[in-house]
Amino acid sequence: MDIFSIGSRERETYSVELKYSLLWEAALGIAAITNDALVETLDLTKEEREMMKASFSPELKKHLEYVKEYNTWKTLLQLLHKEDFNDIPSFVSFLKGLSDEEFKSAAIPYLGKQQEELTAQLVLGSHEALVNLQDKTKGNSFLPDYLGFIFKTDPQELKDHLATVLSEWVQAVVVPKEKEILAVLERDIESKQRMKEKLNPEQFVEFATDGIKYLPEPSVFKVILIPHFFYRPWNVEADLKGTKVFYYPVANESLSPDSKYIPNKMMVQKYKALGDETRLKILKMITERPRSLQELTNELEMGKTTVHHHLKILKSARLVSDSLSKYSTNVQSLNLLDEELQLFLKME
User: Fold this and answer.
1) pLDDT digit string (tens) for 242-265?
2) What is the pTM of this model?
3) DSSP 204-256
4) Cα distance between residue 173 and residue 228, in whole Å
5) What is the pLDDT of residue 6?
């Protein structure tokens, strides 16, 4: 029997919420400065990092070493999502009020519906559940060791560490620049709110994160976007039950009061990529249908190295994507250009 539809329904997607706070900024700053693999790639200059470190007390230095060894920045971020904390005292008070089981449960990232029972058993002290979860997350370079750390560590000791490292960091790094940091975050939120009204959720996430394509998942109903300054230029992801979190770098144009004349760096990159006859030809060709590097080389009658160079520029501008050795146009990113330009020019 034939089946036909007499109506249509748009694909369900997630809602998007924008949030910010100095405590999230502090936790991400702690994460950034203790990540030896990425610290040299941060937008913070070496001189800025050295000046920051010079302000650290011996107590803070000791606790940052602990963060570096056990990745407790992740614990901080997990706990900061439990309530909207306005200051350190409210966060510390919250920590003190948690039972050991509640604390461990809050510290563990959401691992999916299938792992909920194992996570609950781990929180209650099951070593077997820990082993099973470590096996199921072994493809992740971070999670198995982190789960083992949460399982074995004394909750009170970890609470004391988190309260101290966050308090000391805020005092040393955030307070001296509090007004400046808040102004940057608020400018970015204001700019993003204007763009949020013009885009669908998936387009907006891609815009805010400078290129992350996050498609709806069955168990995710909300995406939270949180701007940060210290971890620029990197995005950081997290999973909560029913929620995906992206901590994204504030845009260049949010960095100063005069930033209204500074265009978004990705928008500039896109227009630069489009300002070449060969790249426009390539874009038109792969918009007609996906093509391989060899096909493009043959049809353009150019060297493979030259064509690959043009494709690399288009990819870095998020205008082209590749899959199974075929290149295709990132239509969503291309369609964002007009909205991005209007936002910059404030054409209502």
Assistant:
1) 999 999 999 988 888 776 677 877
2) 0.81
3) HHHHHTTS------TT--EEEEEEESTTTT--EEEEETTEEEEEEEPPGGGSS
4) 14
5) 37
Q: How many CA within 13 A on the CB side of residue 151? A: 21
3-class DSSP assignment, residue 3: coil
Which residues make beta-bridge pairs with 328?
A: 321
For residue 133 the two structure tokens come to 């979860």
Domains of the chain are 15-254 (no CATH), 263-345 (1.10.10.10)
224 vs 242: CA distance, rounded Å: 11
Q: pLDDT under 50 in the chain at which residues?
A: 1-9, 348
CA proximity to 251, closest of 269, 227, 221, 274: 227
Q: Side-chain half-sphere of 221: how many Cα atoms within 13 Å?
A: 2
pLDDT value of residue 88: 96
**Do strands 243-249 and 222-228 pair parallel, antiparallel, or not at all (unpaired)?**
parallel
Q: Compute the distance between CA of residue 318 and CA of residue 307 in angstroms, rounded to an integer.
A: 17
Q: What distance, in Å, lies between the first and last C-alpha atoms of the chain?
A: 51
Strand order across the 236-240 sheet? 15-18, 222-228, 243-249, 236-240
State both tokens at 332: 């969503």
- Residue 236 dihedral angles phi and psi, to the nearest 5°: -125, 135
- The pLDDT, as a whole number, for residue 8 is 39
The pLDDT of residue 124 is 95
Residue pair 222/15 in contact (Cβ under 8 Å)? The answer is yes
Q: How far apart are CA 222 and CA 168, in angstroms?
A: 32
